[in-house]
Queue: 2 jobs
Job 1
Amino acid sequence: MDRTRVAIMGAGSVGCHLGGWLAAAADVTLVGRPSLIDAVQRDGLTVTDLRGRTRTVRPEGLTLATDASAVEGAHYVLLTTKTLATAQAVRQIAPYLQHDSIVISFQNGLRNASQIDDALASAFPSRASRPLVLSGMVPFNVVRSDDSHWTQATVGRLKVKDHPRVDPFVRAALGGGLHIDVEPDMRSVLFGKLLLNLNNAINALTGLPLAVELRDRDCRVVLAACQEEALALARRLSITPARLTPLPPAAMPALLRSPTPVFTNLSRSALKVSPTARSSMADDLDAGRATEIDELQGAVVHFARDHGVPTPVCARIVELVREAEAAGADRQRWSGAQLRRAVGL
């Protein structure tokens, strides 16, 4: 049988990490920025997981491209772009997809699969002939530790929507050393991930490493308030967020508000992070790029507005991130205490 062919559109930290492991059992194409592709073409692709396992794939073991046409012929196209680039990326790959192609969104946020499907509609007006779009979820952070080396920085297992046509991809991933859980209810999974991702903005506003920020009780109190607003929205939407940590989602705000020694003792697995790891939003702010805030606290505010759920803390966090985007290099780095006062807690 032919090897499973996987193309990764928007290969950055997450995309390169996935591609490096998949390459052992699948034919992998990376489509990314020229600087990234040049680095991998020169040095190969090295990936390391949280247990310290490391694999290097030589350049000839990958198909490397900067143009979306390289996805042609792939059985699976993994979309790993930032959410802001979703529509543009889909327009770029659409001419090279077939009706039996499968697109998997490994992106943050609640709405990416539906946005991908909507964006495909112009190229595939008939839903019956449209490529299958599935939701995926990456629970961990990935940091670029060298020009062509990507390291998993936090814990978690990948998840993807349960569907008969996703099975060959899951088997190929397992053959490459990636464990992927198939889930019947990705809405619950994505909402559970959203609760965790609400920390991205808080981490970005402080500029601190995740391990340092999570040991600051004031930062955790702000995160707890954001999570409580999101949990209230989930109840209104009749969604039970998936349990992605040892603690049930409903219990997380109380743990976050606990004294730091108690929090540290009860959340040791959550604190297993690289000492230098930060949220991708922190990297975006440092690089002067637009952030994904609209799909995080912004999504909570958006949906809550339609369902009568108050979200003052999430709304204020959105404002602060927007101010940081506008300020660029002159943006304020907030202490936990300053941030807590700024959101009115």
Job 2
Amino acid sequence: MPARSITTARQERLGAELRKLRERALPTIREASEATGIAQTKMSMMETGRVGVSAERVRYLAGEYACDDAAFVDALAAMATERLRGWWEEYREALPPGFLDLAELEHHSRYLRSFESVHIPGLLQTEEQVRAIYGTSVSGLPEEQLDTRVRFRLRRQAVLDRAEPFHYTVVIHEAALRVRVADRKVARRQLLHIVEQSERPQVVVRVVPFDVDGFTRIGNPMLLAGGPVPRLDTVLLDTAHGGTFMDAEAQLGRYRRVLDDVERAALGPVESRDFIHRLAQRV
């Protein structure tokens, strides 16, 4: 099988999980190659997502590595058998890979938890808000490229319409709610849109007001995407240099605790809805 010229974050994650399993059992690729009969070069490429791996091989490797977590192995095998070319692949030549990786991450998640301290979360943005953000944040962006980014972000929001059980919980700091990326009318419609979306059963919006005492969690926005098993959760940090995916056990534990902290500091869902509605009336 030829090596992939482009790897997605999800393909790399499958390879990384195989590497973690191998390292717990056989520290070097040479040892693993001798034990499994798989060439070192091919094993290395599997562990970086550069070549595909079948579900049967995933199960074989899990057995050789003495992994007895059946649910985890089943989840890895399911990742290996995916042949879906999601809607985001239509944008492969038009947008940076990080855009597509985020859409794929959201698509496969069981739930999403996020914290936004600077911007309205993309899944809750109106078209006017999206257009204003890209129109001002990316200098010299051609109109065609602007339209493409707007369409892409709005298509991502379809994840909230999924039929299967799915929950999106977002904590938004008051600072993000008060930032005007356009004029008052756009700001008001954006706030009222959040109120409307928060009334959906699968969406929970909570607000951290300015006057909360002792709140020290202002920092990079973050997203936790729940995988089929907790070991396959993913954290995405939004930094000035782009999105950073994190999946190490210690990292996942740390950012779960951060999200727990901000949720404890936030108003309840009903109080938050009333809070945002009052802000909209005052814009």
